[in-house]
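pipeline stage [seq->struct] | target=Phytochrome-like protein cph2 | organism=Amantichitinum ursilacus | residues=760
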Amino acid sequence: MPELTAPTDSARSVGLFGLLSRINRITLDTHSPDELLLNLCRAFGESGLFRFAWAGLVEPDSEDLRPLTYWGDQDHWLRRFGATSQLARSAREQGSAQFKNDLSMQPDEEYRVLVDGGIFAAAAIPVRESGRISCVLNLLATDAGTFDDSLCNLLREVADNVAFALEHMLGIQQRSAAESRIHYLAYYEAQTGLPNRILLEQRMQQITAGAPGEARYLTLLDIKLRRLDQVIQILGHQAVDGALRTLAQRLEAYRGYDGILAQLGADEFALAFPGFPGSNAVGALIHHVHSVLQQSVQVDGQEVFLNAGIGVAIYPLHESDVRYLLRRARAAAERAAQEGGLRYYSADLEKGLEQRLQLEADLHRALEREEFELFFQPQLNLKTGAIVGVEALLRWRHPEKGLVGPAQFIPMMEECGMMPAVGEWVLRTACAKARGWQDAGLPQVQIAVNMSVQQFRLSGIVNVVKRALQDTGLAPEWLELELTESLILENADRIIQVMHDLKALGVSLSLDDFGTGYSSLAYLQRFPIDRIKIDKSFIRDVAIKTESAALVRAIVAMAHSLGLSTIAEGVENDSQLGYLRKQFCHEMQGFLFSRPLPENELLQLLRDDRKLDLEEDIDAARFTLLVVDDDLDALANLNRTLRRDGWQVLEATRTDTALDLLATRQIGVVICDHNMPELAGTDFLHRVKKLYPDIVRILLTGYSEFASVIAAVNRGDLYKVLGKPWEDEVLREAIRDAFRQYEIMAGSRALVPQRTGNAP
C-alpha cells in the first residue's frame, strides 16, 4: 500500500492554490452549466491530484444520479462506475461531502473494485442549486490520504462557488427565456406558430410602402371559420388545435415569398399578398384558397369540415389607408360566413355591420322590455285534417323596426348566449297560453316548444320544465319539446339521461329538422323520442325530385319501424300534401293550411274548428288509375274500355301534368304510352317508380325499337308491357291484375297510432 502523503508539502500547497485559482476563472468565464461541469472535471484531472473526475446530475423527479461529464480513462472508469456512484449517492442522500482516504480499509465489496484498479482515495461533493442538490462532483485518487483538511476545505469552497455560478446561469437563462417567450407571444400565435395581427399589419405596411404602379396593390383575405365551436364541443380543444395547424400548413402553401399568413384568433386567419385580383395569377390564387377551405380535415380519425367564409379587401381600391384594410376584409368575411363562400368588400357591408351592432344592443334589452311575443303555427292530422297541435314560435316586436324576423335575431341570440333565458320565457309563456285555452273551453291541442342546445346544456333543465308545468297548471301530456339533431354532437350518454328524465315528467319529445344533422340509427334507437319532424328542405321538391322523395320515404319507413310518428314541416302545396299522404306521414304544418299566427287568429281557427280540406280518402287509390297518352283518340278508347269495370279513370296528355295528378290524387295504377313527346314512356314510368314505388306501372307501345323497353323491364320499372293497338279483354285483365298487385303492396304498410284532435 502506498504511504500517506504529507499534508504540509509545499509543492502540494502551491498545487492546491493553482487549482482554486483555475476553478475561480472557470466559474467566471463559463456561460452554461454543462460547460462549467466539463471544465471543472478537466481542471481536477489536470491538477495532478486525481486520476479521475466525473460529475453527475440529480434527476428532479426520481432523484436518480445521471452521469453528465468526466475526465480520465473512460474504460477504467466504466468498469468501476458502480463503486464510485455508491459514494455519490451517499453524498446526495446525506446532503454533505463524503471523503474516503483509505479504501483498502473499507469493508464494502464495491470499494474492493476501486482498490484493485489502483484507487485508494475517493470523494463525493454535493452541489446545491436553489436549495436542492442538483449535482455531485466525484474525485478518485491513487494515493491514500489525499483528502486532507486543506483539500477538503478547498473542495467545499469549490462546491459553494459552483453553486453560486449555477444559480447565476439559471437566472440569466430564465430571464432570457422569459424575454424570448414574451417577444414570441407578442408577435406570434402559440396555437399554430403563425404571425399575429401586429406582424400582419407591419408586413402590410412594408408591402405597400413606396411600391410603384400595380405593385402597390395589396390583396387581403380574411378567413372566418364557421363551425369551430361545434367541433370543439365534440372533439375538444387539443384535437381542434391539431386541425388548425393542419389548415395553417395548407394555407401556407399559397402565401408566396413576399406575402404573409397570420392567425387573428381561434377561428380567424388572414392572408395578405401584393397584387391585384383582376390579374389571372391572383384570381387563381384566391380560387385555390377557397377550394382548400372546402376540404375536410382529419381530427382523431374523423373527417371534419370547418366551413369558412372568406372576405376579400384590396388596397387602395377598397381602402386608401392600409391600417384599416383588415376592417374592410372582416366586414366582407362576416357576410361570407353567414351566406357561405367568398365575398368581396363593398360599402354597404359596413352599413350592415353597424346596423347589426345596434340590433344586438337592442336585443339584449328586449326581454326586460317585454318586446318578445309568441306566434303559433297549427299542426294537422293527415287522415282527418283536424288541428291536433300548435308550434310556439318566437317573434320580436322592435319598438322602431316593427316585427323582426327570427332569421335575423335567433342566430344573434345564440351567439350572445341569450337562449337559456329567452328559451325559459318561451316555455313558461307557451304553457300558460295552452292552459288558458283549455280553461276557455277551446279544443285541446298539444303545444310544441323548441329547445335550443344552449338550454339543454343547463344542468337544471329538467327542473326548469317541471316548474313551468307546475306554475302554469298545464298537464305534461299537452307539452311537446322539440329537440334539435345537433344535440347528438354533445355528450350522448348525458343527453339521453336528460331526455329520460324529461319523459318521466310526462312530456312528449320530438326530433326537429330530422335529416339535416348527425342522427344515426344507433342513437335514434336509444333516444326516448315520440316523433320525428321531417325538415322542410326535403319537402320542397318531394313531388318532383326522386332524391327528395326517396329520403322522405326512408324517414317515414324508419319512423314506422321504430314506432314513431312523423310530421312534415314546410308543406306549401297540394302536390307535397298528396305525396306525404301516400307515404302515410301522420301530420303536417306549413303555409298550405296556415302561416304562423298571432294568438287571436289561432284562437279563431280553433273556435271555427277549421280543418285541412282532404278531397278524397287514401283508399281511393284502390280503384283509380291514370292514363297518359298524347293521342286523344287513344285516350277516349281507353277511357271507354276501362270505365265498364267501374274504375275511376284520370287522363293526362303530358307527363308533367301526369306528375301533378300523381301527387295530388290517390292513384293505384298508371298506364303510359311509350311514344310521349317530352319524355319517353319508359323514362316517365322509371320516375314514377322512384317517386311512388307502390303504384303499379303498365307501358303501352307500338314502337318498333324495343331496346329501351327491354331495359325498363330489366330495371323493374314495369309491371306489364301491352301492345298498341290492344285487345280490350287483355287490357281489362291486365288492369285487374295490376290493382290486385297494388292491394298487396299497399296492404304491407303498417301505421303507428296518430294524435287526434282530443288527445296528444
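stage status: PASS
auto-comment: The chain has 27 helices and 26 strands. The longest strand covers residues 387-398.
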